[in-house]
Amino acid sequence: MKLIRILNRSIRDSFKSIFRNFSLSLASMSCTIITLILVSLAMLASYNVTSMTEKIEKDLTVVVFVDKNATYEDINIIKNQIKNIDNINEESIIYRSKEDIKNMMSDESEAFKNILSSYTEEENPLQSTFVLKVDDIRDIKETAVSLKNIDKVTLVKYGETMVDTMINVFDIVRKICLIIVVALIIVTAFLINNTIKITIFSRRNEINIMRLVGTSNTVIKLPFLFEGLLLGAMGSLIPILVTMFGYTYLYESMGGVVFSNLVELATPSSIIYSTSLLLLIIGSGVGMIGSLRAVRKYLKI
Amino acid sequence: MEFIEIKNCYKVYKNGVTALADGNLSIEKGEFVFIIGPTASGKSTLLKMLYREEKPNKGEVYVGGINVVKLRNSRVYKLRRKIGIVFQDFKLLPKLTVYENVAYPLETYGLKGSDIKKNVLKALERVGLKDKYRSYPHELSGGEQQRVCIARAIVNEPMLIVCDEPTGNLDPDTSKEIMDVLLNINTELKSTIVMATHDKEIVNRLKKRVISIKDGIIISDKKKGKYENEVDKNIES
Question: Which distant-in-sequence residues (6+ apart) come within 8 Å of A229 by Cβ?
């Protein structure tokens, strides 16, 4: 009962002091708003970069060329051997016989059709191929070597140099994004912490009086804890709205892509909720901890 | 053991000022004691040791059987709940009304709302401010603010009331009113009152126990004492 009464009063007092120290509350809130909007931007950007790179990685295919003279039995053996290699996405393996390829090319253009029609089945200069995808793009080099080592495989193509640089660039971009997000969160924590420190500094007299009339340290801390939590949560409200509506608007106005169809944006529903939740947690968490840290300073004798 | 017991206490501040040297003192329950002395003589330090705002470097302090020196930081509030403190500068919360200011300590102790109301009104009645419970501190005169401070100090009916120059900021007439309130509390609530002052007139009129202190040394301790010439000389010198 006593505990409930104390909690009740602490929450009431925290609301009261937010409104009675309105200008200071506004200061810490606007600081939270600005920094959290930055955090939100960085998080959205990093999400998008990650999803883009994942998409591109998924689309990357490896083409395995089989020796012209390979028989059907050979093809089957090769297929089984490919399946046995780690890092190969088994479902993605597609076999295209030279006939298939001939037909595909003929469909594509008249010129090809004319040229290819002059060859009989035996003379067909094309090679049968396996088209497949890998599970982890980082190990693609080793996988390509294993594929090449299979008997009667003449060539393995995956755009070697381009892919290698792409992997490196994506890795760097991803790391930079992560660093920016983490750095921004730390900056936010600092800024909010400092603003709250200033607001509490102006109330050290109040804290001192509480101590003198025999209020226990825990009970002194409680209203400040709730106040920090509330200010942080309220400060994260606007960034959350900006994230939800701003990103959805951006996505729709750009048609879900950047510049061309090559780079697709992540769909709003897939990221705005988790981002919003994170903003709320960061805002209220940092507010609460900052507030507690600032009060603790005045609770020592 | 007496109610308040100070044994061989030394207090030297970091800047080298000796606030108390070999202080020995015992005060009985229900006593009304003046502590007099010039500014910076160590009066306030002596009082602050009672409610553990300051710790002595050496020696022992007992209040109501509690060893104040050994009290842990996180337990200090338990001592303070048994002590009412009246300050020269009132230390009221400016954004709370008179009622809220007096109710404040009880609320943080987690008392029931109805009990709080009863106690607060009783305390305000005792200091004669019942009809001003809705005012804010800045709307009151100095004497009235001091009475609010006293009401806050007695709302928990403490065993000890420590007053640090409660009339220091007030004119003689208002001071007399405040002293009447304090005397009343001393007789009615049986609270021990320890009051630091340098108001000669009050001390001489009331004829209570007087402890005089100078440069951190207790120089005299007299029942029914006066603000004597001897002390005056010391103040002047």
Answer: A284, A287, A288, A291
